[in-house]
Amino acid sequence: MIIVSTDFVAGKEIKQTLGLVRGNTIRAKWFGKDILSGLRQIVGGELKEYTELLTEAREEAVIRLQREAEKLGADAVINVRFTTSQVMASAAEILVYGTAVKLK
Q1: DSSP 3-state of 32
Q2: pTM for the structure as a whole
Q3: Less packed terminus of the chain by CB within 10 Å, N or C?
Q4: Of residues 15, 17, 9, 32, the one with CA closest to residue 90
Q5: Which is nearest to 7 in space by CA: 61, 81, 63?
Q6: Dihedral angle at the C-alpha atoms of 53, 59, 61, 67, nearest 10 degrees?
Q7: How deeply is 3 buried, as exposed, middle or buried, from its count of CB atoms within 10 A (0-12, 13-18, 19+)?
Q8: What is the C-alpha separation between 41 and 78, in angstroms, rounded?
Q9: Any idea what the CATH number is for the domain that residue 54 is in?
Q10: Listed residue (69, 67, 85, 54) closest to 17, CA to CA
C-alpha cells in the first residue's frame, strides 16, 4: 500500500477515486509516566513519555487508515494528513485521513 501526502503518486496514474479513509486512536500514558513527565516539565527538556505516546498513536492510526483503504480495494492513499486533539488531561487523539485510490 502506497501512502503519500501528495495528491499524486509519482510515476503512477490514478484510475479511480474510492473515497475518504481514516484511522484514529486515543491514547493516554500510565499514571507513573505522567508524573515523571510532569517533573521533567519543571526542569525542562524533552517529554520523552509523550513523544513515545504520540509516535505509537500515529503508527496505530496509519495502520487503521491502511486497513480501511484495503477494504475498499485501494492501491494507495493520497493527500494524507494528520491532526491531533486533546480529549482530556493526559489523553490525545491522533486522526489520519486521506483519499483512497486505485492506480493504473
Answers
A1: helix
A2: 0.83
A3: C
A4: 32
A5: 81
A6: -150
A7: middle
A8: 37
A9: 3.30.110.70
A10: 69
Confidence of residue 27 (pLDDT cuts 50, 70, 90): confident
Query: What domain range includes position 58?
Result: 2-103
Joined grid coordinates for residue 78: 493520497
60 grid coordinates:
496505530
CA–CA dist 30, 16 (Å, integer): 44
Q: Tell whether the model's pLDDT for residue 19 goes beyond 90.
A: yes
Cell numbers placing 5: 501526502
The amino acid sitting at 94 is I
- Pairing, β 2-3 against β 14-28: unpaired
Report residue 26's pLDDT band, with 50, 70 and 90 as the boundaries.
very high
